[in-house]
Specification:
Elements: E1 5-11, E2 16-19, E3 25-39, E4 44-57, H1 58-67, E5 73-86, E6 92-106, E7 135-137, E8 143-145, H2 160-167
Parallel strand pairs: 4-6
Antiparallel strand pairs: 1-3, 1-5, 2-3, 3-4, 5-6, 7-8
Length: about 180
């Protein structure tokens, strides 16, 4: 069985980040995805925006806490989870959310208020200049890639080993 969700969208509000009793971080964000539907008969384009509740744990929550703000464009990969609880009035309630196991920061930020922390107060996040990863390929297998979010692009970037070492964990112990 497969339970996989892939989304690319914009963050609707600043993330809610909490640390649980054991020190584990959890972050919640609301991600908007918009699809445009063209009606050939009326020659009109309609937009439909869907809002998704995303939950991120541990190191992903830490990255969200440091770098993600309202307006950030994200790639999220995860799985659907449905939770049940009883509210104050005794009613059974349900919610469906996406538990992320991978996240990539994309594009530009529409809100540059806090980008000065990252060394470039005017650009925010910058997209790769030529395709994903800004790689230039001169032939099959001859790729010279700076990697998405390389230091030269002004984008904060951490790979799995950097995230793990900043958290004091071994890379092999990460859940992704």
């Amino acid at each position: 069985m497969i339970n996989k969700v892939i989304l690319v969208g914009n963050v609707g509000a600043d993330p809610e980040v909490r640390a649980l009793e054991g020190g584990v971080k959890v972050a919640r964000i609301r991600l908007a995805t918009t699809e445009r539907i063209y009606n050939r008969q009326t020659q009109e384009t309609k937009e439909h925006t869907e809002w998704h509740n995303i939950t991120l744990w541990r190191n992903l929550a830490d990255v969200v806490d440091r770098y993600v703000r309202k307006g950030s464009q994200l790639y999220i990969e995860g799985s659907l989870r449905t939770r049940e609880w009883t509210d104050k009035d005794g009613n059974r309630r349900f919610t469906t959310e996406i538990v992320a196991n991978d996240m990539k920061m994309l594009g530009r930020r529409s809100d540059n208020a806090s980008s000065s922390e990252y060394g470039n107060a005017t650009s925010g996040y910058s997209a790769p200049t030529s395709g994903y990863g800004a790689s230039s390929t001169s032939g099959y297998g001859a790729s010279t890639s700076a990697g998405y979010g390389a230091a030269s692009s002004g984008t904060p970037s951490m790979n799995a080993s950097e995230i793990a070492s900043s958290a004091g964990e071994d890379v092999d112990d990460l859940p992704f």
